[in-house]
From TrEMBL:
The chain crosses the membrane at residues 12-33, 45-66, 98-118, 130-154, 166-185, 192-211, 244-266, 286-308, 343-364, 376-400, 415-432. It comes from the Bacteria. Belongs to the nucleobase:cation symporter-2 (NCS2) (TC 2.A.40) family. Azg-like subfamily. This is Putative MFS transporter, AGZA family, xanthine/uracil permease. One of its GO terms (molecular function) is purine nucleobase transmembrane transporter activity. It is found in: Endomembrane system. GO terms for cellular component: endomembrane system; plasma membrane.
Amino acid sequence: MTSPPVRSLKHAHPWTEIVAGASSFMATAYIIVVNPSVLSQAGMPFAAVLTATVLVSFFSSLMMGLYARNPILVAPGMGLNAFFTFSVVMGMHVAWPVALGAVFWAGVIFFLLSVFNIRTHIVKAIPLPLRYAITAGIGLFIALIGFVNAGFIVHHPATVIGVGKLNPSLLIFLLGLLVTAALIIRQVKGAVLLGMLVTTLAAFTLGRWWGGPDPVVHWNGLFSAPDFSLLLSLDLVHSLQWALAPVVFAFVFTGMFDGLSTFVALSEAAHLTDENGEPRNIKRSLITDATSTLLAGLFGSSPGTAYIESAVGIEAGGRTGLTAITGALLFLPFLFLSPLLTAIPAIATAPALVLVGAYMIRPVTKIRWQHMDEAIPAFLAMVLIPFTYSITQGIIWGFLSWTVLKVSHGKTKDVPLALWIIDAFALVALTLE
C-alpha cells in the first residue's frame, strides 16, 4: 500500500500547523513542572531544573522544526529522569554533577551514532510487523497514561488495576473525552485543542465551587524568575570513570530506543514516510534527538527525547516543522510563567491522550496475524509497552522473540545482521535492570 504524499512546510496550511503545535505543547507542558519535581529529589534545585527543562525543550523542539522539519516535540524524557534520580543518584550514590556528566557523554555517543547513520541502519533493521506493533503499543501506552492521569484507572490491591470511583474530577474527564471525541468526529479544526480548553474551563469552574482539600485546579501565582545556576554544572572528568560505564550505556540504550520507537510510531501513524517507507528525515531527527541529550547535560537536566505526546498535534493536523517550531516557542515564556502550568489539570490533557490511542492503533490491521512467527513478537511488543509501562521493555521483548521464533522456524534470513546486534545490546540492557 502506498502512503499518501506528505505535505511540505512550504505547502502546509500555517494555521493548522500552529494549532497542532499548541495542542502538542499543551499535552507536553506537564514536563516543565514534573521534571523538576523528580530531579529535585536528587538534590538539584527545583527552580534551576525547571529553567533547564524549558531551555532543553525550547532549543531541541526548535531544532526539530527548523533542521529536521518534523512535527515532533523534544524535551527531557519521563522514565529517564526517574532513572537519573532514583537509580543513579540515590541508588548508586553518584553525585548529581557526575550524573549530568554521564548524560552529556551519552549525548556525545548518541550524536556519533546518528551522524554516521548507525541509528538509521538500526531503524531499517526493525521488521515492518514490529514497527506496526510498536506504533499500536505506544498508542495504548499513551491512552493508559491518559486514563491514569484522569484517575479513571487506579491501583487495586486485589486486581492490580481497577476503575476509579466516580467523583467531580472524573466527571470532568468524561465530559472532556466526549466533547473532544464529538469535535474530532465532526472534523472541527483544532478539535483536540478546543477539547483541552473546554476541559480546563470546566475544571476551573469545578475547582471554584467544589472546594475541599484537593481542588481540581491549583493556582500558585503568575510569575517566577528563571534560575540559571545549573548551567555547565556537570562534572565531565569524574563521569568518565569505568564504574559509570553501565550508567552511560543505560542512558544510551534507553534513550536510543525510546527515541527510535517514537519516530517510527509517529511516522507510521501519520504517514510521515519517504518513498521507501522509512521515517521522513530520520537522520536529521535522530541528530536532533541526540543533541537534546547533549544539551540536557550542559543545561542541567536528565536526557531529552522525542515525545510521544506529539501525536496529539499530529492528530490535530500537524505534518511539518512549523508544528514543532510553534511548540518550541510556547515553551520559552515559561521561563517566567511556570506557575501558570499548575492551573492546567492533568484531566485537561487526559482526554486527548486517550483519543490519540485510538488514532495510533490503526496499523495493527497491517500485521499478518495468521503468520504466528510474526504475530507473536508483534503481540508481545504491543502489549508489553503499556503493561510494563516501558517502551523499552516492549521493544526489547519484541526484538528478542522475533529473532528466536524466526530462527526456530528456519527463517534465519529474516533476521538481518543489525537486528542480531540490537538483540545483543538488548540482552546487556536486561542485565542492568
